[in-house]
Design goal:
Elements lengths: L5 H16 L3 H15 L3 H17 L3 H20 L22 H8 L3
Helix pairs in contact: 1-2, 2-3, 3-4
C-alpha cells in the first residue's frame, strides 16, 4: 500500500481543517471535494473523507447524498487499495460512483509533483 506523500498529506489535512473552520455549507463541500481528489489513492484518508461527507449530508438532512455516501464509505478503501477509483471524481453522489472528472489545475500540479 502506498503511503501518502507529505505534500499531498499537508494539502489534504488543510482542506479537511478548512471544512471545520467555515460556516458556509457550500464552502464545506468545496473543501471536502478537493480533499477527496487528493485522498482517492489512499484507503484511510479516502474513507475518512467520505465519513465527513456523510456527516455533512446528515446535518443538512440531504438523504440522497447520505445514502450515496454510505455506499462510498463501503467501497472507498477497497477501491483505493485496488487502484479502482475514478480520477478527479469529487466524491459527491451527483458526480456518479465511477465517473472520472478533470482534476483542477492546482491539485493536478500537486499530484504530479508529489515525489
Amino acid at each position: 500500500m502506498t503511503r501518502m506523500p507529505e505534500r499531498i498529506r499537508a494539502a489534504y489535512n488543510a482542506e479537511m481543517y478548512d471544512v471545520g473552520t467555515t460556516s458556509d455549507d457550500a464552502q464545506k463541500w468545496i473543501h471536502l471535494e478537493q480533499a477527496h481528489i487528493l485522498a482517492q489513492p489512499y484507503p484511510w484518508p479516502h474513507t475518512r473523507n467520505h465519513v465527513a461527507m456523510l456527516t455533512l449530508a446528515l446535518r443538512q438532512r440531504d438523504w440522497r447524498e447520505a445514502r450515496g455516501q454510505l455506499v462510498r464509505i463501503v467501497v472507498a478503501a477497497p477501491g483505493s487499495v485496488l487502484g479502482r477509483y475514478p480520477s478527479g471524481n469529487t466524491g459527491r453522489t451527483a458526480a456518479g460512483l465511477t465517473t472520472p472528472m478533470p482534476i483542477p489545475d492546482q491539485l493536478a500540479n500537486l499530484l504530479t509533483n508529489s515525489d
